[in-house]
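Example record for the data management plan.
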Amino acid sequence: MVDATTLRRTPLFKDFEDAELTLIASAVTNRRFSKHQFIVREAEPGDTFFIIVSGSVSVCRIAPDGRETILSILKEGDFFGEMSMFDSSLRSASIKTLTDVEVGAIHRQDFLDLMDRNTKIGRLLVIELSERLRAANSLIAATTSQDIRARLASLLLNLAEQFGEEVPNGTRITLRLTNQEMANMIGTTRETVNRTLNRFWDDQLVDMKTAHVIVVEPDKLRALVP
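Corresponding structural encoding:
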């Protein structure tokens, strides 16, 4: 359930007063989605802003031939759907769950009313959108200029930073992605990801004895990234 405490864990609202958070929470509707379910689809009309309460989603695009490109991964505390709040545009990407997910949904008019009452929301949104644009530009540059080993090493390091927990032999990535999902993120095939991961394992850069990848040698992975 989305309440003031939940909203405070969201970076977008972390500096708000309790009364402000209570007001925002009153406009939120809770929704739950199962793993591998679309929350929104690209090119559909959008009038809702979403805050992730629990779970993780992929921001993706689906080509006409069915190929999926994952642009980024969002987790608890992140948000999406903000572009449609300003111009009623069609969704620019699809949002697909990677796990079971709970979100808080705010309809466009309610969101605009909140922005009118508190200008901090608009300012923080601009900062977040700028950071996302920089990240997207970095991803495009990496995908076009780096070899597969560098791309996969960079992805594993990013996942370890976002979803890592320390274990005796390294950093365990708690989010379980399939090899196909990783391939969709770095612009290659499932088979290539499988071969490269096994090479990393042979070189003892990662540990894949369990269902979760453990980054064992982050410095050596970083050395692969130009």
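Summary line stored alongside the record: Residues 145-222 form a domain with the Arc Repressor Mutant, subunit A fold (CATH 1.10.10.10).
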